Amino acid sequence: MHHDGANALQMNYTQADVSQPILDGLKAAVLLVGADRRVIFMNPAAEGLLETSTQRGCGQDVIDLVPMGMTLQAALIAAEQGETTTLREEVLRAPIQSEEITVDCTVSPLERPLDGPCIIVELNQVDQLARMTRDTTLQERQDAFSQVVRALAHEIKNPLGGIRGAAQLLDSELNDKNLREYTRIITHETDRLSGLVDRLTGGYRASDREPFNLHSVLEHIRKLTLVETPQGLNFERDYDPSIPEILGDHAQMIQAVLNIVRNAVQAMAGRGCIQLRTRVRRQCTIHHRRHRLVVEASIMDDGPGIEPGLRERIFFPMVTGRHDGTGLGLALAQEIISRHGGLIECASRPGQTTFTILLPVEDGS
User: Fold this and answer.
1) Which of 218, 223, 253, 356 makes an SS bond possible with 345, Cβ 3.0 to 4.6 Å?
2) 1 exposed, middle or buried (CB, 10 Å; 0-12, 13-18, 19+)?
3) CATH match for 210-360 among 3.30.110.70, 3.40.50.720, 3.40.50.1820, 3.30.565.10
4) Res 25: pLDDT
5) Using one digit for the tens of pLDDT, what is the confidence trace for 21-72?
6) CA proximity to 315, closest of 65, 134, 174
7) What is the mean pLDDT of the chain?
8) How far apart are CA 171 and CA 230, in angstroms?
């Protein structure tokens, strides 16, 4: 709930303080806290780290917004007495967080003659650099593997074309309908394998770019999945109504997210809860490119989780944890999201697996 005093102080800050553009551009999460310990400003990095917007965050007690417990409270008391405190490797724990986050936190007093004293809280995610390095390594491995798959696919399609052509010629020469049925099976199966290779390499259709809202994709998939699995499955929705439209291929995006949801349903054996959640993230970096706005969609299930040995390779083609799986569903999802300039992340432990999709919002879209 917002407080008029906090809102007025935030307005003074955002209108008068020339340092706001600098704070907005920082990768560190920065919050300003007023004399009543209520947040009066948070930069885009803080919005992303704490998974809340400025509109929701400003006016809240900083203890509630930054779930660090007594250690933060002690640091705030010290700051009110003019001392700076640095807390190392503190874990943020909150129900709204998709996963635990480890941060270094610095709490400092800040003299503001115009608006009175306040406190600056700076949060640096200590595992962020390792995570960025891991994501870069995985992306490089994925790119290299995709090149190998495309070369292999070319070698596979050439003999498939020859087999299909030979089957058609044989079909035209045969008078026995029973024998011709076999040649048609050969033709059908070669077409199926050719289509499978096309889908694997991402060349099965050109991308039709159009603006669409991601909620329409999620709702379509939710209804379709409930038809396929009418009993034992429950969906929870936590949508941010303010998310902007993205530019891309609506049908391909449905296929990508559907593959993720179906993977979750199969992991839970059709019984359990899937949470669909959307948020807007500001000043977010994807594949070394910084975007002003990014739409985030999370698909969370309460299934058994992904085996540790598979987590690093889950988006690679032909990798699956099921004996009857093809290992193509998540690989295709990753390929489609990458074509849209986005990124998929996966976090998993027993009882909670979360696939997070990040899609940039193009200016003017």
Assistant:
1) 356
2) exposed
3) 3.30.565.10
4) 61
5) 666 667 788 999 987 899 999 888 888 888 888 888 898 999 888 888 788 8
6) 134
7) 78
8) 44
Which of 29, 149, 51 minimizes the C-alpha distance to 97?
A: 51
Provide the 3-class DSSP secondary structure of residue 188.
helix
- H helices within the chain, ranges in order? 4-16, 20-25, 44-50, 54-57, 62-65, 70-80, 128-173, 177-201, 214-228, 250-267, 308-311, 329-339
- pLDDT band per the 50, 70, 90 thresholds, residue 273: very high
For tokens 């990458």, the residue is 338
Supply the pTM of this predicted model: 0.56
Of 1-15, 133-147, 176-190, 293-307, the poorest mean pLDDT is in 1-15
Query: Confidence band (pLDDT; 50, 70, 90) for 306?
Result: confident
10 vs 134, residue with greater confidence? 134
| pLDDT tens figures, 247-266 | 988 888 888 899 999 989 98
Determine the length of the chain.
365
Number of neighbouring beta carbons within 10 Å of residue 100: 11
Name every residue whose Cβ is closer than 8 Å to that of residue 349 and which is 6 or more positions away in sequence. Answer: 305
Edge-to-edge, what's the strand order for the sheet holding 29-33?
39-42, 29-33, 118-125, 101-110, 85-92
Within 8 A by CB and 6+ apart from 135, the residues are 343, 345
Residue scoring higher pLDDT (295 or 5): 295
DSSP symbol at 61: B
- Judging by DSSP bridges, how do beta strands 29-33 and 272-286 pair with one another? unpaired
Q: Is residue 6's pLDDT more than 70?
A: no
Q: Options 3.40.50.2000, 3.30.450.20, 3.40.50.620, 3.30.565.10; which CATH number does 4-126 get?
A: 3.30.450.20
Q: In the sheet where 343-349 sits, what is the strand order?
A: 233-238, 272-286, 289-301, 352-360, 343-349
- H-helix or E-strand containing 97? none
Q: Which residues of 122-131 are buried (b: 16+ CB within 10 A; e: fewer)?
A: bbbbeeeeee
